[in-house]
Write a structure and sequence with these properties.
With about 425 residues, this protein is α+β, with helices and mostly antiparallel strands. The protein is about 35% helix and about 20% strand. Among the domains are: about 100 residues, PDZ domain (Pdz3 Domain, Roll); about 170 residues, 2-enoyl-CoA Hydratase, Chain A, domain 1 (Alpha-Beta Complex), CATH 3.90.226.10.
Amino acid sequence: MRKILLISMLSLLFIQNAQAKTSKEELAKTRFESLSKLTQVIGTVEKYYVDDIKLEEIVNKALKGLMQELDAHSTYMDRKYFKEMKIQTAGEFGGLGITVGLRDGALTIISPIDDTPAFKAGVKAGDIILKIDNISTLNMSLDEAVGHMRGKPKTSILLTVVRKGETKPLKIEIIRDIIKIQSVYSKTISDDILYLRVSSFDKKVSRNLTKAITEHGDKKGIILDLRNNPGGLLDQAINVTDIFVDEGVIVSQKGRDAAQEEKFYAKSSSTLTRKPLIVLVNGGSASASEIVGGALQDHKRAVIVGQKTFGKGSVQVVLPITKDKGEGIKLTIAKYYLPSGRTIQATGITPDIISYPGEAVSEPESTFSIKEADLKKHLEGELEKVDGKEEVKKVVDNGIKKKTITKEELLKDNQLKTAVDILTSLIITTK
């Protein structure tokens, strides 16, 4: 009986090995056929194409097409691209102050950055760029578009954009300039609320937020504004979330191999405040800002207010493909996942409270809105105006910019007004 069982096990093992060998042989055959097909197509183009194209140029075009077909963020970088990158990082270059991405094949503005030429010119998140100057963006890669928009400071560029709600395309002229970004600034609203605006996640964000929160320790609630924030550094997104969260996963990074999954956790020692928190987001909130908003939402640490976010939750790395590192590829290798396990990529974050931009609804102003007890006194004041005895009040401007959001400013921002109302309710209930 044991002999029969042993023979059966050996037979099964032999069959499995034979199947594995066959599978490897089929895979090798398929790979060889695929590479042969690629070589044949390249050779045919080189030989018969109407224009005389060198083999190197054909291969470069094939690589660019391959990377574009993978996803909107993967790209092939030739020597010219690397040279432009060096100019961008080491020299002076002019920019517009916008973050762009490809959405359903269309060149879309993720968000304009605060106080940049694009922001001042009226560019909005969600605008689709049809033309850059007189060049159509149809079938244009992301890197090509960025290359066209980059240029010397003080030079002009004309963007033709399609905007939701507009009946025809808009032409927006922008003057390039050196882009200087203040990533964090703080203001107060009334006596109880601290307003924190984060425009992008650079290397100083968590440090500056910590400083602002510490300086305003008397405030009873916080509004974190991540609207039109295109993202930035992953470690800063983790550190910012850690300011508000005691423990648990903040974000995980999953690639093709499950064994390479990486998780980032909150530390109670880094928690700075447990005060009520509102996070503002919109369609221009992407990448790192979506990680922060989504993690705080999953941990039930904040109420998310605004509109659905952009949905950029993938990880890219630059990998050299030549020895001198003059050429390379930027390749998507992983996706971000929030504490609940949901992905950001192409889905975005849906706010807890939907709120749209625009002016908040308010009671119309009336100079004659008085109570009965004040009627006689008010009418006496009106008579003084008629008799020319109206007191002239002088307004003195000392040139100091107040870091306080006024009631008038609040009424012009419906999303912020909604956030303030919700936070005020939370402050009252937590008492």
